[in-house]
User: Which sequence fits this backbone?
């Protein structure tokens, strides 16, 4: 099976954002680490969606991933990986995307006030897991 170019593109995006998140941790840029971790996770999820066809613009790929699993769009042997990837994408979903860019406007907190070292490290761990899962799915799907 030929792997779609969009899948490869999304994996490269996920890797790039994950690399920046690691750099952000080293530089103690907590907000930026969360932002880049969210984008790495989102693109990891989109890379798996791209195996099925073109991916639209969304910051919430978890919902679409879950629907695809329910429809049986993925082989059974990767369902658990896709489900866990959807969980990661939910945890670092659109709400985190908005908060890491705009903060909590209603509460008057900037993004730099919302995210500390612990939040950044948790986001980074989720992003690492999401990228790894997407690569495992990519490899498993390529073997089908």
Assistant:
């Amino acid at each position: 099976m030929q792997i779609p170019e969009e899948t490869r593109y999304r994996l490269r995006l996920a890797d790039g954002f994950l690399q920046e998140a690691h750099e952000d941790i080293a530089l103690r840029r907590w907000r930026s680490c969360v932002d880049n971790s969210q984008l790495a996770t989102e693109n990891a999820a989109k890379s798996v969606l791209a195996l099925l066809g073109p991916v639209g613009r969304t910051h919430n790929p978890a919902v679409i991933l879950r629907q695809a699993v329910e429809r049986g769009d993925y082989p059974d042997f990767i369902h658990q990986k896709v489900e866990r990837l959807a969980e990661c994408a939910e945890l670092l979903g659109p709400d985190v995307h908005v908060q890491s860019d705009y903060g909590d406007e209603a509460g008057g907190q900037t993004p730099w006030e919302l995210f500390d070292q612990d939040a950044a490290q948790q986001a980074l761990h989720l992003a690492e897991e999401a990228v790894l899962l997407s690569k495992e799915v990519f490899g498993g799907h390529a073997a089908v």
Observations:
- The chain has a mean pLDDT of 93.
- The helical segments are 5-26, 30-49, 61-71, 79-91, 94-102, 111-114, 117-143.
